[in-house]
Amino acid sequence: MVSIIARLKKLESLTIKGRFPVRKSENHYWDVTNVEFPSLKILILESVKMNEWEASDESFPVLEKLYLLFCFYFKEIPPSFADIPTLQQITLHNCNDFLVDSAMNVKREIEENTGCDSFQLHILHNP
């Protein structure tokens, strides 16, 4: 299905929503290392059923904003996101500590690689 969506060459915003939490014994894996979303600027993943996610910096070459909402089972943001030159913002809302640490590592890498501290990382939790 992802490769079909990637054929939409002018797609600038994509929201993927899951419906049910994953069981810890299952391994839900999303690999887009060989898939390119050439115009995608905004990616929103909400309540998705994935533990692992693989991507290259070529998967999302013009991505500007990444939103991860209620992604309780993700282990990390692919480290290659630090190599996306257009990435300006990551927002996490109700995500686990592993994902928070991963986002902070991506932010640190971007700041070290570019010498710029304008990258925005938003970490939100329900009160």
UniProtKB/TrEMBL annotation:
Entry protein name: Uncharacterized protein
Organism: Solanum verrucosum
